[in-house]
Amino acid sequence: MTKERIVVALGGNAILSTDASAKAQQESVLKTCESLIEFIKDNDELIITHGNGPQVGNLLLQQEASDSTANPAMPLDSCGAMTQGSIGYWLQNAMNTVLKENGLKRQVVTVVTQTIVEADDPAFKSPSKPIGPFYAKKELSEIKNKHPRWEFIEDSGRGYRRVVPSPKPVEIVEYPTIKSITDAGIIPIVAGGGGIPVIKEGNRLIGKEAVIDKDFSASKIAQLVDADKLIILTSKGGIFYNFGKANQKEIFDVSTKEIQAHLDKDEFAKGSMRPKVQAAMDFVNNTGNAAVIGALDDVKEILSGDKGTLIHK
């Protein structure tokens, strides 16, 4: 079997479901790594990226709850870096455990990653990225009174969440390091939460209050490191047309031309499947290589081509 270089994007909700404790998230990460080990068994070069929406939102709440003159709350970009470290630690630890259990000798390393965005990206004026916990409609009034500057959206029928700006990634600062690590046979965990958003000011990189969509950053990294495939893993599986309706249809193999027609009709939810489809198409259109969107639990079947949605030219 031919070895492939594969970038895998994990959602933040694959790490945190309902229990936000460190122990519960570490248990979820261990299960995730038990699925990801299938790539290593296949002798593929694996690059792991992950979301941090639930985690960074919860951390912001903790920071604001303890904010004081002596101990000021950290800004969103620093909280993003903190979650890169904590989730990276959990993934490193779990992956090392699973590698040893399977008799595989590979090293794993987390790279705190900065992602350059444009200072004038219109996303800064139009927050759209959900972070933190879900709130019931009846809770919104009290929360808005407490945090009048926060903005909220209804997120995929599961409740309401705070939204923050989500600019598009322009450049991955550490991509040469990520490529070198991968070339050396090491498994890198990179661009957590899409990477820390920074803008260029002369020779400096300045952090911005935003959260980049991890799927767009994963697509950018996959292009920069010459990946053979981008795989976006979700909790619900691949792409469906008319999702949630009586006539919903699961799609297993689709061209970018066909799926663009469905994007143009606004068929995919903006906070969930739409950015995944757009990121996958960006990778396919710019490289000619295929992308897959599928369920984390179906990794074996995705590798064998039996599950997930394959997107190609």
UniProtKB/TrEMBL annotation:
What is the top-level taxon of the source organism?
Answer: Bacteria
Record GO biological process = L-arginine deiminase pathway
> Known Gene3D superfamilies for this protein?
Acetylglutamate kinase-like
Pathway named in the protein's UniProt entry: Metabolic intermediate metabolism; carbamoyl phosphate degradation; CO(2) and NH(3) from carbamoyl phosphate: step 1/1
Indicate the segments forming the Aspartate/glutamate/uridylate kinase domain, all copies.
5-293
An example GO CC term for this entry is:
cytosol
Show the catalytic activity.
hydrogencarbonate + NH4(+) + ATP = carbamoyl phosphate + ADP + H2O + H(+)
User: Can you name one GO molecular function term for this protein?
Assistant: carbamate kinase activity
SUPFAM superfamilies (UniProt xref) = Carbamate kinase-like
The entry's keywords? Arginine metabolism, Kinase, Transferase
Does the keyword Lipid biosynthesis belong to this entry?
Answer: no
Q: Which NCBIfam families match?
A: arcC, PRK12352.1
Q: Which family does it belong to?
A: Belongs to the carbamate kinase family.
Instruction: Report the protein name in the record.
Output: Carbamate kinase
UniProt source species: Companilactobacillus allii
| Taxonomic classification | Bacteria, Bacillati, Bacillota, Bacilli, Lactobacillales
